Amino acid sequence: MTARTLARALLGRRARLRWVHLVLGGALLMPFWLVAALVVLPVAGGGNAFLGSSVAAQFGAYAVALPLAWVAGLFPLVRPLSVGMARALCGVDGARFADGPARGGAARRRTAGWFTLHVGVGGILSGMLLALPPFAVSVMLLPFAPGLRDWLRLPASLDTAWALALAPFAGLAMLLLLALCATAAGALLARCAPVLLGPTPADRLAAAEQRAAELAVRNRLARELHDSVGHALSAVSLQASAARRVLDSDPAFVREALAAIEDTTRRTVGELDAVLGLLREGDTAAKAPAPTLADDLPGLLDRTRATGTAVTAQTGVDAAALPVLVSREAYRIVQEGLGNALRHAPGSPVDLRIAVSGDEVEIVLENPLSPGSPAASEGSGPGARPGSLTGSPAGSRSGGGHGLAGIADRARLLGGSASAGPCGGPGEAGWRLAVRLPLTPSGGGTR
Fold first, then answer.
1. Residue ranges for the chain with pLDDT beneath 50
2. Structure pTM?
3. What is the 3-class SS of 88-119, one letter each residue?
4. For the domain 208-438, what is the CATH code?
């Protein structure tokens, strides 16, 4: 090891930061030491409460202060403070530390152990930093200041020419020893910090739950955007295409199509702003409520019919009487089902049925398929039946989108079920989407 490497290890930036960390530990020990000194020093027979007491009494107060520090370390907020100091000063990767207050007895005990170790080692080293440098400098000056010999009360055996000649080297050795002790103590704390302040199983579980909650919010926002924007774009595309074809021959139809496009885009921009508002940090503006069956089912059907698609609706349910959560998710399911019909079977009639069956709401959408579509060929057998959307290949539709998966997620979160797939016999290939939602949602549907 070269002199430069040794100097960097003892006095480099990392070493200096660790020295500061140790001195902070010594400062944190002082209140506990003072409380212990009020009890220990008088019992030990020290003349003065703090100054002039024996070394044994000083270490006795230190020994009593450590259990007091351990008790203080049990408080949950000690961990964030300790982690903050360790991250900034110990030179350890911050990702190895736990975040937040200590959860559970194991985390509190580990934090208390770290706090005791930090203040204990820091207290010893702080005492050495206060006492040893002045003494070492005094020893180095012995050959040049005879008065220091009496002040230090050196034994006669050390008051020789050889001893005085070696005194400067002895002083330098003391300072080097102090640097080595500080470096070793800093390295010890850096090694123990991730072990005692790292995440416990409870912390990892809480972090996993937090990530799952964030992912659920992201998935919900993705579904909202997919359903509202996807349906609007499909409707607008068909309306614009139909208007283009009859631009010269049927101006009245073109005006109706443009009005429908304007209405659809205006509503979609409002829904898009409401969804994106959830992503704006600190956004306290009032958010537009999510549409429900009771609010906008007739409007949704009218906008779909404006594309030239014939929609037959049988709604044997009082939408206003449905729970808001069920009504909201049912609206999005119907919206996505109609959007699928517009994308995959444009111009084909759609049959929508919404009814209450027992304690469930049943939603069924059916539409014929184009003769050449892959889904049409799948449904060419008399035994063709819709498949569950929980992972069955029958739950996928030509085009590879995520709408059916979103429908399945909505139904599952409410404790319901969903299925989709080809239906009908030869020559009558169609697509059927069937969803059942409980009137009393269960599971994770309270988003």
1. 47-49, 51, 282-286, 374-386, 390-401, 444-447
2. 0.54
3. HHCCCCHHHCCCCCCCHHHHHHHHHHHHHHHH
4. 3.30.565.10
